[in-house]
Amino acid sequence: MPGETSFRPNVDDYIAAARVWYMHALRKPRFSIRLSIITALVAFGGVLITWDDSSLGYRLLFVFGMMAGFLILMTMLMLISYALLPRRATRLFRQQRTLEHDFVFRWDDAGTDTRSDVGTSMIAWTDYHAWAEGRAAFIFFLNDQLYHFIPKRALSPDQLVDLRTSVQAARAGG
Asked: What is the model's pTM?
């Protein structure tokens, strides 16, 4: 069913979209695979460091300690990055002058149509790389890094359901 909404993005919308992007990136298999490989390399390093030690118990304790330390470090870095995300998103929002305009966002079974004073974008659902929904925003990925966002505050409850249903149906069929 065709839908339409209008909004002017604000910094809170941009922060919400950045949070959805960040959490989406952490949930991707690519992140888990990379983290697993690096953890295995840390464990291998621990084995190499303790290779000459005759005590198996010490070796295991050392290797598991290195892996736990690495995972704690990675968790801390991810939490710090998430905590600093609003600061970075605010800076980027202020740099992007095109967000200072009113937008009209339309969608139907074929895709999206976004218009503002500075441009028009018509994109088929099948041309989006992925999509994600967060607490305060929908984001539609053009690639892993670039996305369009729609703040949920700009949508009525019926529009929220319709947009979600439209993208799910289109992505399932595409």
From this structure: 0.83
Say how far apart CA 72 and CA 154 lie, in whole Å. 39
Phi/psi class of residue 79: alpha, beta or left (left: φ > 0; alpha: ψ in -120 to 50)?
Answer: alpha
How do residues 64-83 score in pLDDT, each as one tens digit? 888 899 899 999 999 999 99
Burial class (CB in 10 A: 0-12, 13-18, 19+), 156: exposed
Sign of the CA dihedral with 14 first, then 19, 129, and 139 last: negative
Residues with Cβ within 8 Å of residue 117, at least 6 apart in sequence: 101, 102
Instruction: Tokens 């390093």: give the residue.
Output: 45
Adjacency order of strands within the sheet including 103-107: 3-7, 103-107, 111-116, 119-124
Listed residue (87, 53, 84, 47) closest to 67, CA to CA: 47
DSSP 3-state helix, strand, coil percentages of the chain (rounded to 5)?
60, 20, 20
Determine the number of helices (DSSP H) and then strands (DSSP E) in the chain. Answer: 4, 7
| Location of structure tokens 């937008």 | 103
Q: How far is CA 148 from the centre of its chain?
A: 12
CA 7/CA 14 separation, integer angstroms:
13
Q: What pLDDT score does 1 carry?
A: 62
Element (H, E) at 102: none
